[in-house]
Amino acid sequence: MRVRKIRSARELRRSRALLASTVDASFLSEFDDIPELQQHWQCLADDGTLAGVAGAYVTEDDELCLTYCVVAPDHRGGGMQAALITAREKWGKGQGCHKAVTYAARRSFGSVINLTKAQYRIMALDDYFLCFEKDLA
Predict the structure, then answer these.
(1) Domains in the chain and their CATH numbers?
(2) For a tag on the chain, would you pick the N or C end, based on fewer CB atoms within 10 A?
(3) Distances from the Cα of 9 to the Cα of 12, 36, 81, angstroms
């Protein structure tokens, strides 16, 4: 697998369209209101097919905020989400971030497991979401 940063709006639209054919990725448009801040990555499977897309940005408090992460169903369980988490953390460290924050839906068991494996701690929860943080030192 290979993870790389998405370099253009056209490439981002193409990535989202490919994923939308396999998962409900309609929520991704929620992140279009911060385009100057948001950065995006894609994960390609060994055969070159798009397997996942993820985003992140640096907050005003210099924290890395992992926003969305979508992995196509036929690529789940292969380490794609973990690779996207790692790539975004590496970028955040390069931006001077010392902490990462994110969230996952309670019912998104794969995401909760992957974040826990990546050493994220649950900091808050409600009926729908779990909020996580991790020191990046």
Answers:
(1) 2-135 (3.40.630.30)
(2) C
(3) 5, 11, 22
